[in-house]
Structures are given as C-alpha cells and as structure tokens.
Amino acid sequence: MKKFLFFILLSFFTIGITQAQDYKYIGVSKCKMCHNKPAKGEQYLLWTKGPHAHALRTLTTDRAKEIGSKLNIFNPVTSPACIKCHSTFGQVDEKEISSLRLDEAVSCESCHGPGSAYKGASVMKNQDLALDRGMILPTEDVCRKCHNSNSPTFTGFNYEEALEKISHKDPTLH
Question: What is the CATH number of the domain that holds 59?
Fold first, then answer.
C-alpha cells in the first residue's frame, strides 16, 4: 500500500512539474518548416507579405526617428519601448534571445506564444493538446497588447478588419 501511495504522489509531482514548465521561443525558421506548404495554407509566405513581418522595418523610417526623438528615444530599433511591439524579440527574456533574430519582427510566436512544446506535428494536429502546451489562439485582447493608445502612432483599431488582413488559416483544420 505504501508503494502504491508513493507511486501516486510521484505521478502527481511529475505531472505538476511538466505542467509548470516554461515554454521557449523557437524562432520563425522552425515554424516555417511546416507552415510553408501549399496544402497547409502557406502561413509563412502570407506572413512575409503582411504587415507583421515588416513591423521592425517601420522603426527605421524618418517618421519613426522623429517620433522617437519627441519621446527621448535615440534609436527606435533598439529601444525596448518600441521593439516590445515591433518584434517578438521584445517579448523574450534574456536567456532566450539566442533562439530568435531581431529581424523576424512580429513573428508567429508574438501572437501564438512560444512554440517549444507545441511545435511537433502530432501536437499541432490536436488543438486542445497544442493549447495545453502553450499555444495561444489570438483574440482581440492579444492584438490590443500592441494595437492600443499607448502607441504614439495609434489611430484606432478594428479587430475584424485587421484579422482579415493577416488571415492565414490552415485549410486542413477548418
């Protein structure tokens, strides 16, 4: 009986540790491996053509420099205040930085969460399991973390219109 109770306690402890794991960012190149195929909807290709893939580039413009100057920001491209919304890089803790490239801008994991635990095909085929392993289904609240009045260029945000512009559904799941 003691062995059985020990086994049960050990099982709960192990499950608790597994559930409490920190998810790691893996970078867009890992997402691209599966999400660039025509049969799956070419999400990577759609991302490269959309505004999120180029969000960091907007920080290099004269307008961004002018706005930054007014906010006492010398270089918007390296400012945490700017890159937190213009790059996944701005969301990552220092020990994870090596897994990302600054030039990825607003990549998959900015909206869908760090992919280390849900990146596998067997997990991705089961949405509940993927969600359990850290995947996020972006909602309006997720988008409004950046698309809000804290941005010095904010002019309003229509979630439905914005969603249509970045749509990248997987036809095998819908």
Answer: 1.10.1130.10
